[in-house]
Amino acid sequence: MSFENAQNRFRLLSGLSEDECEQWSSVLNESLDYVQGIVTKKELSDADERRLGTLAGVLAYCKYMIYSIEAGSGYRAGEITVNADNDTYKNAQSIWQNELRLNSDLVGESRFVFRAVKP
User: Fold this and answer.
1) How many domains does the chain have?
2) pTM of the full structure
3) Cβ of 66: how many Cβ atoms within 10 Å?
4) Is the C or the N end of the chain the one with fewer CB within 10 Å?
5) How far is the CA of 43 from the CAs of 52, 109, 110, in angstroms?
6) pLDDT digits over 43-82, tens only?
7) Cα four-point dihedral sign 33, 63, 44, 107
C-alpha cells in the first residue's frame, strides 16, 4: 500500500494542491495505518495494494471533510434548517461505507456493540 497512491486519491477528491496536501500528511499516514490494520486477505497482489492505497486516500478525505466542518455552518429557508455539520458528517460516513463495501474482499471492519445484559 503506497502513500503516493493514497495521496493522489486524497488530492483528487479534496481538490487541494500538492502543497496544501502536505498539511494533511499525518492524516494520510493514520489512514494508511488504519486500512493496513483491517486487511483480511492474506496474500495481496499489486492491484490489491493499489486498491488499499485508494481506500486509505478515501478515508483521509472523509477525515478531512469532518475536520474541516465549520461550527454553526448551514442555512435556514423558512421553517427548514439544514445543518451543514450533520450533512457533511453523513456524507463522509456514506462515502467511507461505500468504499468499504467495494473493497470487502480485502478488508473487514470489526464493530464493537455494547448491549445491556438482562439479569
Assistant:
1) 1
2) 0.78
3) 14
4) C
5) 13, 18, 20
6) 999 999 999 999 999 999 999 988 887 545 554 555 555 5
7) positive
Please say if the pLDDT value at position 113 is more than 50: no
User: What's the rounded Cα separation, in Å, for the pair 53 and 88?
Assistant: 23
Q: Give the domain extent around 63.
A: 3-102
Residue 46 lies in a domain: yes
What's residue 66's pLDDT? 85
Rounded Cα distance between 17 and 74, Å, is 26
Q: Would you say residue 41 lies in a domain?
A: yes
3-state secondary structure of 82: strand
φ/ψ of residue 11, rounded to 5: -65, -40
Within a domain: 113: no
Please count the other Cβ atoms lying within 10 Å of the Cβ belonging to residue 31: 25
